[in-house]
Amino acid sequence: MKARQVSPGGGSHPSARATRLPPPAERGATVIPDRVVARIAAHAARTVQSRHAAVPPDRGDPEAPGASAAVRTGSVRLHLTMDLPYPTDIPGVCERIRKDVAGEVAQLTGLRVGEVVLTVRRLMTAVDTGRGRVR
After folding, report:
1. Distance between the two ends of the chain, CA-based, in angstroms?
2. Which of 47, 107, 108, 124 has a Cα-to-Cα distance from 73 of 20 to 30 A?
3. Measured on CA atoms in the order 77, 81, 87, 88, is the torsion positive or negative?
4. If pLDDT is split at 50, 70 and 90, which confidence band does 73 have?
5. In 3D, which of 122, 95, 111, 98 has the Cα closest to residue 44?
6. pLDDT tens sequence across 88-108
7. What percentage of the chain reaches a pLDDT higher than 70?
8. Residue by residue, what is the 3-state secondary structure of the chain?
9. How does residue 63 score in pLDDT terms, banded at 50, 70 and 90?
């Protein structure tokens, strides 16, 4: 007498179960809303800002980075706004921030990051404590 092995899925052969699935195009898609991608980008920007452009404590607290996102057919366009310390290598720091945020967003969402626009909201100098303009 021969013993027949039964799979845990109910006895049917795995390839038979796989053939009952609809084609991939008909299964649906995961949609990540723009606001969710923007929150992921803002969190990544905060992390990158502290690593690449930390503002010394005597210069006041920088505002949290802001972000917006536009997701279209598997890719995303990001717009970031943040404060940077001065003096610093502004073009170099901005490029590193753009690359790091794009990599983090792509890794976490699976979306291709087409463009990252970075706007420097304010340069934090030693005398800049958030009181406004000094004359």
Report:
1. 99
2. 47
3. negative
4. confident
5. 98
6. 899 999 999 999 999 999 999
7. 72
8. CCCCCCCCCCCCCHHHHHHCCCCHHHHCCCCCCHHHHHHHHHHHHHHHHHHHCCCCHHHCCCCCCEEEEEEECCEEEEEEEEEEECCCCHHHHHHHHHHHHHHHHHHHHCCEEEEEEEEEEEEECCCCCCCCCCC
9. confident
What average pLDDT does this structure show over 112-128?
86
Cα Rg, the chain, nearest whole Å: 24
Whether the CB-CB separation of 118 and 80 falls below 8 Å is answered with yes
Helices 34-52 and 90-109 pack at an angle, to 10 degrees, of 140
Do 49 and 82 form a contact (C-beta atoms < 8 A)? yes
> Is the backbone of residue 96 left (phi > 0), alpha (psi -120 to 50) or beta?
alpha
Other Cβ atoms within 10 Å of 116 Cβ, number: 22
Select the more confidently predicted residue: 113 or 54.
113
What are φ and ψ of residue 59, in 5° steps? -105, 10
